[in-house]
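User:
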Amino acid sequence: MTTGWQAGQCIDMHAHFYGGGIDAMLARRTSRPCLRETADGPVMLAMNGEFPFTPHHYDHRIGLETMTQQGVTRRMLTFPGALCADVLPITESLPAIRAFNDRLATLRQDTGGRLTGLAGLPLADMEQAARELLRVRRELRLPGAILPSNYFNSLRDARLLQPVLVAAQQTGALLMLHPGLMVGEEPAPLAADHPQYRTSAVALQAQASQVVLTLILSDILDRFPDIAFQAINLGGTIPFIFERMESIARHRNADRPFPTERLRRLWFDSASLGPRALEAAVRLYGADRIMAGSDFPIFGDNPLDAIRLADSPRPNREQIAWRTAETLLDRQDALARP
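Assistant: Predicted structure:
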């Protein structure tokens, strides 16, 4: 690995991988989520829309070439959570997810650690999902797993994940909380107009904030202190509304201040956001809790661009580009013990 900021060192902690057998499983399906052939080429029909399905989604070699061009030295691929393949019936999801997780482990080995990954879990059976997470950590030695963030819209919903959270605590897993549905949940309707902005930006960022609130306002962080929770997209709107929440606490329940300090018990990635958002997040969380992210292949921007353009001291930019992620990944490797 290259060293130093001048060498362009960067660890991308938010990217997705649609290969590993998941693409073949979706090609066999006839309802969402599925792949459909069109005159213009394959299209992925996800639960929240559809998009062209290109080799960028499933050929890891293309991603490696992009990393080299951008100066990204390591990348954490994840199971494609937004597709909701992890909440399909267990007979369909379990074989495909286990094969996918095996593939992630192989990619890590074959690339000398340049690629690593967060596994999928077959959530239609929580006990089976917990067993798969134990396998992912103890046998495959991957950092952890991705979970649908709708399970963290409330503490009641989060309790449904109890077996998975226990397994994550036992193995010190990293859990990325990414937009996705709960088992049996229907997707929310797209906005009546401009859904690419109202649904995929405004509503998504508000939901990311709900996830953060559930974690810091509940006892989850205290009951499961060895889990590393990764909140996507800098925690949504939290860096811009936390002062309002502090004001609400002062005026409505002065004896219970808003627990702003608990935000530093989470990890945040900067996927698909820019330098101004990054500046606000650094002031709130600290650079040592923030990691670069690209959301590749959904977005093609270089994750280093926002960091370079942010009005922040060079040590902060270096911290976000790779030091925070390296600390976290080293932690995950150390805890992935039998």
